[in-house]
Amino acid sequence: MSNQSHDNAADIQERPHRSLLERAKNGARGGSNNFTNLSLYTFGISGVWTGIGAGILPFKVLEALELGDVTVIGYSLDKNGALGMLSLMGLVVAAAAQLGSGALSDRDPRIGRRLPFLLIGAVGLAGLTVLFGFTASFVSLLLAMVAMQLFGNFAQGPANALIIDHVSVHKRGEAAGVLNLWRLLGAGSITVIVLQFMARYDNQDAPQWLWYSIGLMVIVLLIGVVWTVVTVRPKTGLFIPTLKRPKRTKSATAEPSSSKISKPKISRNYLAFLVALAFALASMSSMQIYALFFLQDVVGLENPADGADLLVVVIAATAGLTVFPAGYFSDKYGKTNLFVIAGISGVTSSLLLLLVSSIGPVLVVGVIVGITVGLYMTLTWAVANDLVSRSSAARELGYTSIATLAGATAARFAGIGIDELNNASPNLGYKAILVSAAVGFALSSIILARLVRDSETFTAGTTTESAPARSAPD
């Protein structure tokens, strides 16, 4: 495993003068190290989550509210609150599933250890996405979302570590850029098509558009995952993953002191990173979750799905043009200044949305939102890959799901506040959430920029001392 990874990593470094487009398309020529092969699974998975969350779930929530009031702990939820709480319950399961499956995949030392989890989880997610189409009540929606999160993140947890397994440390920013490029392409393209379908959807007169949407998502999900599994799998093929802890070798037990010395500092840095990530995700999630209702209530669109479709195109296209250059330049010049730019663009876009009243200005602001999303997606994933250890990469990367849960919890609970403030004064809730998003972007960029600056300074000063420990087996 180590020889194959080393040879392929060297192959990447021999072609530094290729264009950014060629790098994004091809990565390394070696099969298991090809950046696109490692990343294509996320095209389908992200397409399912954004297609369901932004394109279908709001319609399902409105239909559920027509069947009767939705009450949680004695509190009657309106559309924003119901949408937020429904999404939140699934994310609790998502965090646990990522941590659990990631830790199990770390126990297996063999090449391709992540792939069976990815394949099983994706097949389960595909089947549950079809069942999601039959849901009507709030309870059935909740059960479907929880089950989908369970299987989807059973796949996602181990897949998180594919970059660490196969990519040289000096190319992980670039690899993260390619990963997020495919993630955005999947999320953007699938959501655009789903929103177009759902703009024609009617529960009674035109239910077929829902099934067109679900069929599209399932097909793309399975194609993307199978592509990654087939191209990255070892020569011996797939296998049943072992759940037993690997036996410690003498070399592994001979260096406990060096690993114990480095863990406290890495742990503090990683904790700070997770806090900053939670702030950024809370801001981005709050802008995404309530976009459809924002366009309906603030911008005044009669068919907000059409407006949301245009907005998704603008954001996804801009973010897609941002993610790979962000990863490339972060590898070459560092990440500190890029995090500052990400924070400024996030604050600017949030505050500018306070001034919009028509779809045109919203789309213009969407360009800045896309730059913000692209920078944060690539830079945070590159930093996460730098901070975790190789021997337990999937489990430690699974902690990002805790940060996602924390940020998403804040964003989902905000739905209740939006409804309350909107009842007090028209659109006051939307203004409050945008100001909160600006604060979140500012805090995350300050923490991440300082973290990266300190880490780069520490690494530069200790490279000679730490190199032997880093190259030893975990």
Quick recap of the structure?
The chain is mostly helical. 79% of the residues lie in helices and 1% in strands.
Query: How far do the termini sit from each other?
Result: 14 Å
Which blocks of ≥5 consecutive residues have pLDDT under 50? 1-18, 23-32, 249-265, 460-474
- Biggest sheet details: 2 strands, antiparallel
Summarize model confidence as the mean pLDDT.
79
How many separate domains? Answer: 1
The fraction of residues assigned to DSSP E strands is: under 5%
What order do the helices and strands follow?
A: HHHHEEHHHHHHHHHHHHHHH
Structural class based on helices, strands and sheet pairing:
mainly alpha
- Annotation, overall tally of beta strands: 2
For this structure, what is the CATH class? Mainly Alpha
CATH superfamily: MFS general substrate transporter like domains
Q: Any idea what the shape is? A: globular
Describe the structure.
It is globular, with a radius of gyration of 22 Å. The chain is 79% helix and 1% strand. The protein is mainly alpha-helical. It has helices at 2-13, 20-26, 35-39, 41-67, 79-106, 115-132, 138-159, 162-166, 172-199, 208-232, 250-253, 256-289, 291-297, 304-333, 336-352, 359-387, 393-397, 399-424, 428-471; strands at 70-72, 75-77. Residues 1-18, 23-32, 249-265 and 460-474 have low confidence and may be disordered. It has a single domain (34-241, 259-461), classed as MFS general substrate transporter like domains (Growth Hormone, Chain: A, Up-down Bundle). Strand 1 and strand 2 (75-77) form a beta hairpin. Helix 9 packs antiparallel against helix 10 (208-232), helix 12 (256-289) runs antiparallel to helix 19 (428-471) and helix 15 packs antiparallel against helix 16 (359-387). A two-stranded antiparallel sheet has the order 1-2. The relative contact order is 0.14. Keywords: Membrane, Transmembrane, Transmembrane helix. One of its GO terms (molecular function) is transmembrane transporter activity.
